Amino acid sequence: MNSRIAMTCVTLLLSAGWTWAQEAPQSAQLLPGQDAAQLASQETAQQPAEPQLVPNELEQMRNFEPAPDAEYRLGRGDEITVDFAGRPDMNAKLVIGPDGRITLPLAGDILLAGLTRPEAAEAIAKALAPYYMNLSVQVTVTKYTSNQVLVLGAVTKPGLVTFDGTPTLLGALTSSGMGLGPGGTAQIPERCAIYRGQNEVIWVDVKKLVEAGNGLANLRLERGDVVYVPSMAEQFVSVLGQVEKPGAVPLTSDSTLVSILAEAGGFTANAGNTPHIQIVDPNRHTTRVLSMKDLLKPAKSQEATLRPGDIIYVPQTGFARTAYVLSGLSPLITALSFGLFTGGL
To answer: Which of 93, 128, 143 is the last residue of a domain?
Structure first.
C-alpha cells in the first residue's frame, strides 16, 4: 500500500510539469519565538540531501496561460448588439453597465457580465420568455472595452491596454511603449512580473525568451492581469493575499515588513486581527511564517529581514499558512498559489 501511495505522488508531481534536478536542501522556517541566530545555526547544520524536485519553469508558464480557444466573456463597459430574428423592432444596441447588467423593456435588468455571447443570448431569451414565445436571440460585441490589462512600472506609456481578442504579454508591452532603456529609449524589458488577482504572480524573462525565439515571450494573459516592468536599478517585493493593494512594493534600505504592508494598503477584513504572514524567497526556495503580533514587538521585528524578489503572502483568516509551487530560479521565477492548509491562529 505504501509503495502504491508513493508512486501516485510521483506521478502527480511529474504530470504538473516538474523535472528532476540536484538542489540544496530547503532552509528551515523561521517560526514565532525562534531568533535569527538559531535559524542561521539550523541552516548551517543542514547537509545536502537526496535529489529534490525542481519545477519546470516553461511548463509552469504554459499552465499560467488561459486556453487558446477560450470563449470571450462579456464584461462591464462592453458595447453589444442584440438581434431578435424576425423582430427587427426589438433589436437594440446596449452597453453593459458597471453592475454587469443591461436593461430591456419588460424584462428589466439582466446580468450579462461573465457570460459568453451564446450564454448572454440565452439569458436574454429566458428573461423575455414570459412575454414572447420562441424568441431567437443573437448577441454581438461591437466594441470591447472591458478586455483590459494594466501595465505599470518602467514603460513609456503606463496604463490600461484594451484588446479586441486574447490579451498577450508582448501586445501589452508594445502598446505601453516597451521598457525604458538608457536615455529613455524604448526596448524589450529584461523581465517583468504578471499579477493575477490577489494570489498569483509569475516572473517572465522577456528578453531572454524573445532572443531564443520562444513563443512564451508572448504569453497569453487574462482580463484584469497587471503587468509590472521594473527598472534595472529597482528593488522590490511582491505583496499578495489579503491586502488592499496587492502587487509590487519598492524595497529600500529603510523598508520593514510593517512598512511594506502599510504601502500595500494594509490588511483586508478577511485577514483577521493577527494574521500569520508568509515570506517566500523564490531564489532560495525558503519560507518563513511570522505572526503580526510578534512583528509589532521591536525585538521580533528585526527577524523579518526582506530580500529583493521576496513574496509576502497574507492568508485569509482561519488559515495559518499557504503552500506555493516555486518554479525555476532567477531570472525567471514563477510563484503560483498551490493550496491552503488549515491551522489555528
So the answer is: 143
Contact 83, 140 (CB under 8 A): yes
62-109 per-position pLDDT tens digit? 777 877 778 889 999 999 999 999 899 999 999 999 999 999 999 999
Q: Which residues of 160-181 are buried (b: 16+ CB within 10 A; e: fewer)?
A: ebebeebbbbbbbbebbebbbe
Strand partners, 138: 83
The per-residue pLDDT for 97 is 94
Type of residue found at 121:
A
Q: What single letter denotes the amino acid at residue 269?
A: A
Measured in Å, how far apart are the chain's first and last C-alpha atoms? Answer: 35
Beta bridge pairs of residue 31:
none
Q: Is 70 exceeded by the pLDDT of residue 180? A: no
Sign of CA dihedral 205, 207, 213, 217: positive
Residues whose CB falls within 8 Å of the CB of residue 258, separated by 6 or more in sequence, listed in order: 295, 296, 301
- The CA distances from residue 188 to 132, 162, 174, 177, 181, in Å, are 56, 20, 9, 9, 8
- Domain extent, residue 88, equals 79-143
Contact 255, 277 (CB under 8 A): no
Q: How far, in Å, are 133, 190, 196 from residue 309 at the CA level?
A: 60, 15, 17
Q: What are phi and psi of 72, to 5 degrees?
A: -70, 140
CA nearest to 43, candidates 285, 317, 306, 334: 285
At position 57, the amino acid (one-letter code) is E
Residue 213's CB: how many other CB atoms inside 10 A? 7
Both 217 and 318 in one domain: the answer is yes
Q: Are 219 and 204 in contact (CB under 8 A)?
A: yes
Look up the CATH number of the domain holding residue 232: 3.10.560.10
DSSP 18-79: EEEE--PPPPPP--TT--HHHHHHHHHH----S-EEEE-HHHHHHHHSPPTTPPPB--TT-E
Residue 77 has phi, psi (to 5 degrees) of 95, -15
Judgement on whether residues 124 and 161 belong to the same structural domain of the protein: no
